[in-house]
Amino acid sequence: MPKTVVKFGGSNLKCKEDISRVIQVVKNYKQPVVIVVSAFFGVTNYLIESLEKARHDEQVAKKTTNYLFNLKKETLELHIQDSDVRNNILSDISILLDELEKYLHGIYLTGDASPALEDHVLAFGERISAVFLNGILNNEGIDAKVAFPEEIGLITDGEFGDASVDFVKSINKVREALTGELVNVVPGFYGLSSDGKTTLLGRGGSDYSAAAIARCIGASSLDIWKDVNGFLSADPGIVDNPVQIQKLTYDEAAELAYFGAKILHPRTVEPLCDPHIPIRIFNIYGVLNVQEPLTVVSAEKIVTKCIVKSVTYSDDFGILKLKGSGVGAKPGILAKVTTALLMAGINISSVLTSQTSINFLISRKDLSTAYSVVSAIDLPVVGRLQVVENITVIAAVGNGIAENFGIAARIFSSLAKHEINVLMSCSGASLIVSYILVGINDRTQAVKAIHREFFETIPAAGEL
Ligand code: ASP
Ligand code: MG
User: Cα–Cα distance between 393 and 313 in angstroms, integer?
Assistant: First the structure.
């Protein structure tokens, strides 16, 4: 019988009560599962700071490992009565911390860290979490062992900081390593390059690790435990009583994740859509029954009464605008600009063009580099290059958006009613999403207005 891959994030490992819930969840599966775990809440950010400081401060290596040791020690003291058991777990953690201290000290001695070393250091948050959780599970009588990515053969394309899993190289080994009657606890967030170097799978990448492992072992499902109620029809910080979404397709979930829904790392669906492995999302603060997910992401396509299932937004984008009366007439402009951006390692999220203007939607953090590299290209027809910041991209997502008339009209008129100016829009590029760009100051009103338009009458339970 295929195993289930179960992912716990940093938000599931904040306090004693969290850990009791995690144990209960693992027990409720009533069969061996593969667990993928992130670092404790805040630990990756802490390690990033330590990496920076370690370059010029000799004390940082010791301070970092002391801090991490105490963090685990305090949590273990709350949870495990038997001091021998606690000390055994702490001594396993100490082996990792000694190693981490050596790396941080090495960074101090050389004043520098290569990308390979940075990735190796940042993955310690997950390694320590896995050893910690494994110890706790063993103490509860659950037969578990840690399975490090280096042991199970989770191989990547080798790109430091943002690697992708190489399935051709990984599938057989990972599958073989994770069979058997034990619960395996795998640290998320990293895999190994073909030459054995730690490569991170991008920030927040433990969801993607878990999805990759689920694909390798042909899992029955990937179960992600969060501290919120699955996917919602909008951010509850903006909209009162958003509707909980019970079912999404892989594409719908990916669009929502790319444009702001924090619930899932955007790359999680990638490994799972071809083999049709469902993603089931649970709330650890709710019912711990493993039969009752809040949202299921699968190939099952559902068009709801509202058509739009969720309205999400992201402030992470800006526009690089090329203006000139000849841009629509001259061949090769897009090719030159996209090549320059590629060489600078900048991802283009969308391109919106007219005859007099080309607009590249780019992550805000890359905007100034994008401006510099594009300014340096010889583009005679471009009269003006401009960066547009302070925008929000709003995405209305749902199967049926492109196949039903009036959806775009309703979005626009709901915004017009509130005198919200639409800076740009794009519908039809994908059958399931309409993007609207508005000024950042209009974001909250815009999300509320579109949500109200489609969710005024909440459909009966079961229809979403
Ligand atoms: N701990 C890593 C991060 O904070 C990976 C994850 O949480 O998924 O980015
Ligand atoms: Mg995370």
Answer: 5
